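Dear Dr. H.,

I hope your travels went smoothly. While you were away I took the liberty of generating a structure for the chain from your last submission, since the lab meeting agenda had it listed for discussion. I wanted you to have the full record in hand beforehand rather than looking at slides cold. The sequence, exactly as received, is reproduced here:
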Amino acid sequence: MRTTYAVMIAGSVLLPALPAAAADIDWAKVDQALGKPGANQPGDIHKYALPRTDLHVTVDGVTIKPALALGSWLAFKPMGTGAMVMGDLVLAEDEINPVMAKLLTGGVAVTAVHNHLLRAQPPTFYMHVNGEGDPVKLATTLHDALGASKTPFTAPATVASAAPAAPELDSAKLEQVLGYKATLNGGVWQFTVPRGDATSDAGMAVPPAMGMAIPINFQPTGDGKAAITGDFVLLASEVTPVLTALRANGIEVTALHNHMLDDQPRMFFVHFWANDDAVKLAQGLRAALDKVNVAKS
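The corresponding predicted structure, in token form, is as follows:
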């Protein structure tokens, strides 16, 4: 349960204390505790990317790039006199309980453990976390917990003889169909679609950078095809229409679950997978987005 911060003024009236400003937190100390630098993002968010470059995972014969579906992340936001942290940790099966034990001992909550992909070899799991308090202490706990996994804290060395990238997709066409701009990251075209409404968790606003935007990722697989995955962030009333639209367009639904414990309104996350003509898949995803209250690009 979150702490309510208050101050006493004349007449013994209690007013909420102002939230901490990002400038009040020494992010360099948080970076040091976590073991890698983070990046400032809109909404006073300080975020860490922790791709599982050590994992070699395939789905239906497609080798999954970390940017497609193996990207752990942690996002800190100033709150009260400290910070709130949320994140999603990509773990191998034998890492789940060692990581969870260290998180719980250190006071960081585990809010979900589940799959995002089907038929992954080896299987991968996703652990959602939530904590609040001193950001350096939170970062220390998270670093120690991730130490019970093989999560890399440094980028892998570049190999000059690495295989050439898959043929380029027509990203402009994908942007035209989906209606949003794409970013190329690690050989994957990534779209981020914000919702058109707001969500809070235990009364604290949860911005898009903390997992409330809809990520859609395209990994080229050759001949204009792409493997796609991501997750739709949905109200209960949107779940069935989105499931129906995805299935009608040949896109497999791989998971339906929650990521938070006390979100208002209650949000549901629908993960998906397909490997087919990239433009055809974009049209199917657009049909699903049309069922969702998304922000206009």
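Two observations you may find useful: The chain has two domains: 24-146, 171-289. The two ends are 35 Å apart (CA to CA).

With kind regards,
E. W.
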